[in-house]
Design a protein that fits this description.
About 45% of the residues are buried. The protein is built from 14 helices and 10 strands.
Length: about 375
Amino acid sequence: MAFEQFPVVIGFEVTLACNLRCKHCASSAGLPRRNELSLKEIIQIVDQFPDLLVQEVDFTGGEPLFRDDWFNIANYLKKLDISVRIVSNGVLLKENISRLLDAEVATVGVSLDGLENTHDKLREKTGLFKHITTGIDAALSAGIPIAVITAVNDYNVGELPELFRLLKNLGVRHWQVQPIFTRGRAREKELYLSETSFLELGAFVKKHNDPTFGSVEINMMPADGIGYFTHLDSRDTAWQGCSAGMSTCGITADGNVKGCLSLPDNIVEGNLRNRDLWSIWFDTKSFAYNRKFTIENLGENCADCEFGQQCRGGCSVMSHAATHELHNDPYCFHRILSQRNCEHTFSGPLKDDYQPAVKGIARKN
């Protein structure tokens, strides 16, 4: 049967160049890719989006604001009535406020990876935290929607409650938390998230996303790598498997098409300098890891799981980063709690002392 879904959301890495060298960068961003797409080439690619029913384009990097012509691309997408979002490290946020307003960018995702000392240490730049929070405050005051993004690891997981209070005081209303991807510089620097810290993260998100425990003051958005299939999963609907190549895809700065930009660069479906996006997207061989998935593809972490067919092995990026395989994500509430035979630890409403309860579980990783 021919594949009939469309890529409604596209991640577009407009450059791999970056003005920081963060310890936990999964892309090892810094220098631009060799032979990055020109503005003319990007506009030619963007012109293909309406026929593919693209609704949203998320600019990423590197640092997208580091590319001088990002504004031209965003304005062109606005003319096509395609929503634009940007993920930024925040260094250039304040000086781009007027352009972000003119381009009617729907959301600016700004990275904040802990309290001041932790953030500056991870990003290897003293004074960065104050610069970023000042930029966030200025952007919010100007009416730009800001979503803070935090890559959670064993160094900053304990700071989440205090970071929550700080973001609340800043007026931030959207916060995406995601487990760290142990790829790129994160692997080199040996940054990781233990199973116990992962459970702690899940309990934190659950507590602050559930109106049962009080008013939801910040819309906390769990990334795809946080789950699955216990009451710690705070999604509105149960996880239905990785969306890479199903309803989303990514385009790298040199024109490669990937199911997800966070997947390794050797998992590509074609290049837009050689083929148009329509032919790549609807190629019967494209994104086979998801489109032709069967339960036989599940790795050892997921092979015996009753949710395997629906889940398809969790987040593809987390799975590959942790095990070098797809459909084998070890970061799974159901798997960890089942192995530890202690799901009762999290039964019923989560209380304010959820962190000690989680820390009391013996490490097995």
